[in-house]
Amino acid sequence: MKTTKVRQSTKSGKNKKGKILICRKSSCDKRGGKKLYRALGETLHKLGLKERISIEVTGCQKQCKKAPSLILMPGKVKHADVSPKDLGSLLKTHYQ
Ligand code: FES
Fold first, then answer.
1. What is the CATH number of domain 2-95?
2. Does ligand 1 have an atom closer than 6 angstroms to the CB of 43?
């Protein structure tokens, strides 16, 4: 998994409402994006984050070679080559 911090919000993303932007275009879907999308909802539920973190499907996030790709908001933190097993620690770190 590769992480690129594009812009850091001045406030921490913890305990605030947030959004996950997940790419569902063909490069990402072919490289595990479908499984990642399904796992995202399940992981948010397991972590008790479903009420305050929404999921939004996007077009290409210009990280196709490192697909699948998602962006965690607030903070616009880009993550590429994400696997479902990475989600738990990724979401805990960003949102809890
Ligand atoms: S298709 Fe997902 S980043 Fe381009």
1. 3.40.30.10
2. no
